[in-house]
Amino acid sequence: MTFNAIESYTKAYASFNTSSFPLENALIQSNRTCTLSESWEWIFSFQPIYMWIVFVLGFIENMFVLIVFLLHKKRCTVAEIYLGNLAAADFLLVCGLPFWAIYISNKFHWPFGSFLCVFINGLIQLNLYGSIYFLMMVSIDRYLALVKTMSFGRMRTGRCAKLNCLLIWIFAVVSSMPKTIFRRIRYFPEFNVTACVIDPPSPSWNVASGLLLTLVGFLIPVTVISYCSFHIINVLRNNSMQEFKEINKEKKASVLVLVVLLVFIICWLPFHITTFIDTLHMMNLFSSCAMNNFIEIASQISSYLGYSNSFINPLLYVMVGNHFRKKVKEVYNQFQIRKQRGRNASIPTDFTADTVRTSISMEPQKNRILL
């Protein structure tokens, strides 16, 4: 998410509130800051609706994925453990979006209190760091399964995967702390709103936080993902490896992983590029008003594209993941069997007893006929 969004919203709201006095607004803005473009009006009207759509789709789809993984009778594979945790991270992200939709609809007045101001933003930050590292681990798993099968294949255990997921969740919480500990409820008397904003200790903190997000939250994991994906693709294109049954089996799972990785990078790359440009802008490398407006609008649009990944991933599991579709059918069959057993258990015992008595009473008649 654009984590300086509320500050941008506040500036834009001030601009639109004074738009009925163009001369006065021009004088005020010329003395204080750049005038934000009219494109913000379209963004403000579109964003709450979009957030509600992402919430509904992402909530239903990711809940469906988690239910399938949790209720299936067989244990999850290593890749499925990572993808399941990715679905959990996306689920947490979409659960925070209704609060932001209501916040923007309320003219940027935060009615949910200080705790949710920090907590909801913490969930969004948690997804930002956690999701890409879950994908990094699933790409490493595919790399070990296809490229280093003989040397490191035994390291691919469910227990090891669960431990890695726990460490990633802890890492995501720690990494999101700089953006959450300085969240505050702040009243702006000039706009008569109580906003949930970041109140950093110094201007240099914004620069350090932006560089941390770009480096740790994107460049490092993407480098690892790119390295693993390059070698995975080479193995998949190697026809001499297709004779091995195990390699052929891992190939099907790797195709899904590669598609998920590609879509994730497409969705989140514009956001991280915009974040890096914004960091350079905070270092005063860009100072024009046109660049300021471009960064603010690009941050919002790239955030929307990043949100979309939360409901696209489950669709990829269904469309590309043959093994996942098979699991869905098996879970459905499990429920059908349980439903059938429930019906059988509900049959009255009197019926069984009457059947037994009838069969017993018929025995003497059969004996007479035989005689």
UniProtKB/TrEMBL annotation:
Cited PROSITE patterns: G_PROTEIN_RECEP_F1_1, G_PROTEIN_RECEP_F1_2
In which compartments does the protein localize? Cell membrane
Q: Which Pfam families match?
A: 7tm_1
Instruction: Give the record's membrane topology.
Output: Multi-pass membrane protein
Q: Specify the G-protein coupled receptors family 1 profile domain's residue ranges.
A: 61-317
Q: Which UniProt keywords apply?
A: Cell membrane, Disulfide bond, G-protein coupled receptor, Glycoprotein, Lipoprotein, Membrane, Palmitate, Phosphoprotein, Receptor, Transducer, Transmembrane, Transmembrane helix
Q: What is its main location?
A: membrane
Subunit structure and binding partners: Forms a complex with PECAM1 and GNAQ. Interacts with PECAM1.
**Name of protein:** B2 bradykinin receptor
Name the species this protein comes from. Xenopus tropicalis
In the UniProt record, the gene name given for this protein reads bdkrb2
